[in-house]
Each structure stands twice: as C-alpha cells, then as structure tokens.
Amino acid sequence: MNQQICLNDVKPGQHATVSALQSTGSMRRRLLDIGLIENTDVECLGRSPGGDPTAFLIRGAVIAIRSEDCRNILIHAL
Amino acid sequence: MGLTNSSMGIKAVDSGLIIQKQTPSDKVVALAGNPNVGKSTVFNGLTGMNQHTGNWPGKTVTNAQGYCKTKKKSYVMVDIPGTYSLMAHSAEEEVARNFVCFGEPDAVVVVCDATCLERNLNLVLQTIEILPRVVVCVNLMDEAKRKNIRIDLSLIAKRLGVPVVGAVARKKKSLSELMGALDHVTDGNSQPTPLSVHYPEIIEAAISKIQPLVLQKFGGRLNSRWLSLKLLDQDESLIREINAYLGEAFLQDKELKDAITQAKIQLTEQGIDVDRLKDLIVSALVKNAEDICRGAITYEKHNYAAADRRLDKILTSKLTGYPVMLVLLALVFWLTITGANYPSQLISNGLFWVQDRLTDFFQYIHAPDWLHGMLVLGVYRVLAWVVSVMLPPMAIFFPLFTLLEDAGYLPRVAYNLDKPFKRCCACGKQALCMCMGFGCNAAGIIGCRIIDSPRERLLAILTNNFVPCNGRFPTLIAILTMFFVGTAGGAYSSLLSAVLLTAVIVLGVGVTFAVTKLLSKTLLKGVPSSFTLELPPYRKPQIGKVIVRSILDRTLFVLGRAISVAAPAGLVIWLMANIMVGSSCVLNHCAAFLDPFARLMGLDGVILIAFILGFPANEIVIPIIIMAYMAQGSILELDSLAQMRELFVANGWTWVTAISTMLFSLMHWPCSTTLLTIKKETGSWKWTALAAAIPTSIGIVSCILFATVAHLFG
Known about the structure:
The complex is a heterodimer of chains A (78) and B (714).
Chain A: E1 5-6, E2 15-21, H1 25-33, E3 41-47, E4 54-58, E5 61-65, H2 67-70, E6 73-75
Antiparallel strand pairs in A: 1-6, 2-3, 2-6, 3-4, 4-5
Chain B: E1 27-33, H1 39-47, E2 64-69, E3 74-79, H2 91-102, E4 107-113, H3 117-130, E5 134-139, H4 141-146, E6 149-151, H5 153-160, E7 164-166, H6 176-186, H7 201-218, H8 224-233, H9 236-246, H10 249-252, H11 254-269, H12 274-293, E8 297-299, H13 306-316, H14 321-364, H15 369-407, H16 410-423, H17 430-439, H18 441-447, H19 454-463, H20 473-485, H21 491-521, E9 532-535, H22 543-578, E10 580-581, E11 584-585, H23 586-600, H24 605-613, H25 621-632, H26 641-650, H27 655-666, H28 672-682, H29 685-713
Parallel strand pairs in B: 1-3, 1-4, 4-5, 5-7
Antiparallel strand pairs in B: 2-3, 6-8, 10-11
Helix pairs in contact in B: 3-12, 7-8, 7-11, 13-14, 14-15, 14-21, 15-20, 15-22, 15-25, 16-17, 17-18, 18-28, 19-21, 19-29, 20-21, 20-26, 20-27, 22-25, 23-24, 24-25, 27-29, 28-29
C-alpha cells in the first residue's frame, strides 16, 4: 500500500485535494463546518514563526491548523 | 466580547439574556452569522448602539440587544455570538444555537461575509431549516468589490427562497434594504418558502419515517423536518435543550421512540452509524451551498488576496513574526507615554487649580477643618490624581490597541504564539485573551470563552492577571519614568520608557507561560486539544471612529470608576491618616504593622496598604501611596512627576523599591471585579481563590527574592 500523505506534506504555495478526514470528535465537526469535506481544495499559505500551526486557504477563508490535526487530514497525491 | 464601557468592569459580570421589549408589538430579530463577518457592525448600524467591534473571530461571546425602528415596525435586535454552525461545539456557539432554536425570534438575519459567501451559506442553510423567516445580509460588499468578486444576489435569493440583501455595514445607509426585507418577512402575510436542503436518499427515507409522528405529536413549534433530523443525529446538548423546551415527556413517547429506533436500525444496516450520519449531513449542506453559489459568484481576479498574503509574510514569518510583534507593542507604548505627558500635566494643573478654589470656598463659608480635609483633601484629591495620572495613558493606549484589533492583527498574534502555548499544553487563542487583558482583565476572562476546551479555558482564566490591565499600566509607566528614565521628558526618554515597559510585559508573558505549564503538569493535567484558528482578511480600521469612540468610552469608564471607587477610597485613606490612636494615626499604625513584612519584599508598609486598599480598582494604588506619604510628611504641593519622585525618595524609595513595586503590581491578586468575573465564569470559589493565590504568591516570592539579592549586592 502506498504511504498515505496528509496536509503536513503540503508545502507553502502548494495546493492539495482532501481525500479523507480521519479526525474524530469535535475537531472533525469543526473541520466539516468550515467546509473541509472530501475533494475540497486546500492551499498551504505558510507556517507560523514556531513552524506550527500552518495556515491554509480553505473555501476562501484562512484557517490555521496544528500539525497533530493535519496528520488526520489525508490528501490525494500532489 | 470587546472592550467597551459596557463590557468592562462590573457590567461584564452579568451576561444572562432576557429579551426586553419596549412595546408588546416589538418584533424580536436575532443577528446570526459566522464569526467575524461584521455582525456587531450591522448591529451598531441598526440600533445606534456602540457594541465593540473588532476584526477577530469570537469577539462577541454574549448576547447583546438593542432597538431599531422602521416606518412600519419596531424591533428588538439581538446580537448573538458568531458561529460556523448550529451544531454547537463550544459554549458561545451553544448560546447562538439556543437562541435561534428556542428563543422564538420573529425573524433571523444571517449576516454573511461577501468575500467568503459559500462557506457562510452553510449556516444560512441550517437556519432556514429551523425557521423560514430568514433574511440573508451579505455584508462587506465593498471588500468583495475591491477583490473583484462579483456576486449575483438575486440569483442566490431565488435559489435560497429567502430575501438576500447586500450591505456595507460601516455605512449605515446601506442597511435600509435590510430593514425593508425585515419588514416584509415579519409582516405575517407572506410566508417565505425557503429551499429545503436535500440530503442523500437514505437519510431522507429515515427522516420521512419520523417526521409525520413529530408533526402529529407536537405541531409546529419547531420545524418538524429539522427536529426529526436532530433526533436521528442524537446531539446530546441539543436533546437536553429540546427536553427543557418541550418537556421531558416528548422524547419518552413510546411511538416516537420506536420510530427513531427503527429508523436508526435501518441506517445502521446500510453502514451509517451516528458519526457517518453527521458527516453525511454536513457534506450535504456544503454541497448544497456549492450548488447555490455555482454561477452566482465569480472571482475575476485569481489572486484576489495577494496584499493580505504579503502582509502575512511580514507579520507571521519565521524571521520577522516575533520581532514585529515586539516592535509594535513597544511602538504602542511609546506613543502612549509620549502622548500622555502633556495632557497629564494639563489635567493635573486644571484639577488642582479647582482644588484651590474649593479650598477658598470652604474657607469662605467657614467650614470646619475636618470637613474640608475629608471632602477636599480626601475625596477630591484622590479623585483628581486618579484622573490626571491614570486617564491620559489609558485614553491613548486604548484607541491604538483598538486600531490593531480592527485591522485584524490580534489573530496573527494568536497564530504566532500558538507554538509556545502548545508547549505549555495550552491553546494559542489564550493570546487573544491576554490581549483583551491589556484593556481589562475582567473582559479578558470573559473573552476566554472563545477557547473550546474547558481545561485550556481554565488555564487562560487563571493566568490572565499576569497581563497588566489598563488600571496598572499608568502605575508602571509612572514608576519607570520617575526612577529609570528621568522626568526631564524628551523623545529619547519616552523611547526608553517604552522599551522598559515592553520588557515588563514580556516578563508578564513569560510568567504566564511558566504558570500555564506548571498548571498543565499538576492541577490541570492534560494534553493540548485540537485547534483551528481563522485568520481574517486585513481591514482598514475606521480610524476616526475608533479614536472618538474609544476615547469617549475610556473617559467615561475611568471617570465612572474614579467616582465609584477612588472617592470612597480617598475618604477612607483620609480618615485613616487623620484619626489618631495614641500618638500616631491609624494609617501609620497599619503601615507600621505591615512594614516588617513589606520590607522583606522590598516595599514598605504604605505601599502594601495601597495595594490592599486598591483591591476594588488598581487605578487607585499610586494615589493612595501619594496621599499616605503626604499625610505623614510635609510636602504639600505636588503637580509633576519630578515632585512625585522627590516625595517618594524622601520616603525612602530606591531603585529596589521601584522594581519591587512594579513586580508586585504585575503579580498580585486580581481586582474585585476580575475575581467576581472569574467566579461567574468558572462557577467555583475554589478556582477563584486559586486565581488570587497564584499571582499573589508568585508576586511575594519574586519580590522577596529580588529584594534579598538586590540588598546582598547593592
């Protein structure tokens, strides 16, 4: 099986498409609320000075997500 | 939640919602919307009120209400906290959901951000599922235009089946269309027929099993289709509210229970458990929103947010993020200190001129000495000091800070500081609460509601006091200026003051991190929870309005507090200084009693008493110290910082005293209002006591350590 890639693998400036959401509980609902469903396009905008969280452009809004949470957002091959 | 006259101080404590109609025929309208879409601006525009606005998500955490009239009707407008969805996850989202669902509003206005309309429609769709009388107000049309985003409002209105109006809420005139739509929606003659969100067939089938029963059992108080969906969805907090609203018996109904169980079995057979169901519901909403916007919104410029991205590169990059933050903080302080000098002098001259005239008047009417002492030398003089020393820095710092807030910088601070906060097992949003704390710790503590995890919220509440509030700034500034910069004035010295003050704040932030970490490892054990933070587009702040508004608000606030707190404190301190017991006054006895302990901390008895008497408001600490020294000594004229310094030095102050006093000002018990707010927010005296004990013990220990070391080497 191929190594699954997640939002952490997207570098600033790159786009990716969500393939599956593995987050659970309230984080899952929060991500769904902001429109992060399968096949949503996400653009990585940049990282905060500490290297984490990372800012993503999701459906026209800039949302910062921590790397732990990005790990659960799988994407299609870049 | 913002910092306004009504959100600070004791008024911040009470936040329950009781709709107050002015006349029985008033229509109740809820203002809903995603966080940070300008709901409060719409609210202010409609009601003429001054609910604080600021460019960050989560600013409004409680319901506010106001009134507005059209030619036909009068309305009670309720500004509810911003929420992405009505499937509540956090305390403030629950407030929003409960009001839309159970507050029985006559209509709901869903305010949307034109630059991000598709995502905002998610909430619109959820709202029209609950009640049909909805008006969609697409705010920030000017920003969309600037970014070359074209929106066909009438097409969207046709697809949604409810009125959709555009607005630029900063311009009041643009809200007239909204009011027209509201008049139309609430007049009762026309029942709007909004679009019904289409769910996957399997869910539709399950809904249709329950819906007829719901409708039959319970009529139309809540939309039956929506209620059926929610019964399948099993949202616990919502079920609780439904129970409270409809009575427990409703969900205990056997027929209904059976139908729900059956529908669920059917769903499970098809591989849809509760989580999958929630996913399908949300995905359906998002897809419906996509469909509605298809062809109705066109982005003419691909890179419409390029300017924002460039700014983000400077404000949040690895290289410049932190330095820019420090420089901005120091710049705000520098402007505050430089700007405050002159008006401070002016106000002080004016107020003490009045004091002399008051004295003349008391002599003229041959008033007894004690009356003159009590009212003029006690009450009036402390009041005058509070106003002249404290007001100018506050009135300048505040609008500057509000400008940064309006522009959208504060969420970037939270973004920059999330990593260090995560190291302390806490949440970056705590940085936003700290920023609020600069204005008023009570407001900062209410602001902690934006943090979802209860553990992380408690961390933020317990440590908020390490950020010096507006009431403590002027104390720090005065001491810094007197003892470390020199009172001669000039650009260089105010720059030095600003840098030193920034250092004090950085120390406070450092202590915040340390205490947060310590609590995370002991009393409030846990791992950092997950976290999303929206970084809103930068907006040009409404400079003129911000300045006028916040100076006015500040002035009113400080004056109000001066009268309610400083005046009685002035009386008490005068009495203490003038009632003699034995050979010495009460004040001296108290000071002498506390003196040995205070000396250990590098302070003296008077300073410690001032902090104790300053419990109702930190603003009065310095005035009490002055008053006490003057009562003991011989210097009677005091109208400049230079003279104040002389007075302090004559009473034994050294640089050690000055630093100890600043340390203790930064770290001691929160003021009474803040403690009341903590009690209210945590619901527990235990946490409230801890919130006082932590900073106090840290303050005492660091003062003692510092004083001991300083005396050893000095």
